[in-house]
């Protein structure tokens, strides 16, 4: 990663996905950057302190009859160090688009985790690797009978009819127990001071509420 990215990633590690969303809401970014339907599967299922932060390395799967040519090599061999792999799969596909060997290679390359906008497989293998996986669900069959990789490091859309959300190469992906958030790279420097201010205010509110102050009164005083 570039030095500027390293600094932003280090700062983002101080905050939860909820903190990031709060800041993005203040900047009027839709849904606070939340990417619906993606939850933690590895190293544990919605448990533990796992959090991943890094710039997105995107992978775009398409249906076999899509006119786009197949990507000429395997995307996993060019994952950058520090990246979060984001695999986009067309909706309503029962097959898995990501497996244990992908994580083995991604981990060796220095990726910090993978987010699968679709199904993945080899769950036990992922957990034995202690490799973070966030996804829509699990599957068993590989993708080749239905899908092909058409592009790498291109903008992709979240595959749901709940939202119209884009994930672009280099955007920051933050994932923890609360879910997955995308922070556009061009908003990161504006968002970070807002996160700091919000967390400081919330900490003061929490102490005041514990001491008996009402939520409304604490909100007026500290926010």
Automatic annotation (TrEMBL):
Keywords, A to Z, come to: Magnesium, Metal-binding
Supply one GO molecular-function term: oxaloacetate decarboxylase activity
Q: Which residues bind Mg(2+)?
A: 122
SUPFAM superfamilies named among the record's database cross-references: RraA-like (SSF89562)
Q: Where does substrate bind?
A: 99-102, 121
* Cofactor dependency: Mg(2+)
Q: Which domain of life is it from?
A: Eukaryota
What is the protein name for this chain? Uncharacterized protein
Q: What is the lineage of its organism?
A: Eukaryota, Fungi, Dikarya, Ascomycota, Pezizomycotina
């Amino acid at each position: 990663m570039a030095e500027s990215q390293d600094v932003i990633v280090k700062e983002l590690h101080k905050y939860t996905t909820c903190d990031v969303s709060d800041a993005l809401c203040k900047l009027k970014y839709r849904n606070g950057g939340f990417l619906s339907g993606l939850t933690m599967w590895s190293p544990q299922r919605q448990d533990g302190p796992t959090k991943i932060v890094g710039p997105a390395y995107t992978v775009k799967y398409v249906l076999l009859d899509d006119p786009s040519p197949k990507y000429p090599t395997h995307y996993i061999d060019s994952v950058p160090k520090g990246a979060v792999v984001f695999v986009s799969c067309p909706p309503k596909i029962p097959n898995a688009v990501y497996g244990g060997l992908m994580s083995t290679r991604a981990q060796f390359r220095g990726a910090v985790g993978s987010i699968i906008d679709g199904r993945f497989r080899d769950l036990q293998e992922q957990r034995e690797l202690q490799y973070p996986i966030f996804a829509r669900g699990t599957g068993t069959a590989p993708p080749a009978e239905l899908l092909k990789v058409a592009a790498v490091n291109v903008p992709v859309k979240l595959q749901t009819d709940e939202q119209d959300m884009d994930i672009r190469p280099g955007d920051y992906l933050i994932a923890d127990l609360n879910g997955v958030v995308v922070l556009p790279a061009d908003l990161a420097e504006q968002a970070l001071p807002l996160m700091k201010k919000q967390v400081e205010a919330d900490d003061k509110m929490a102490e005041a509420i514990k001491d008996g102050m009402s939520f409304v009164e604490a909100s007026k005083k500290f926010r």
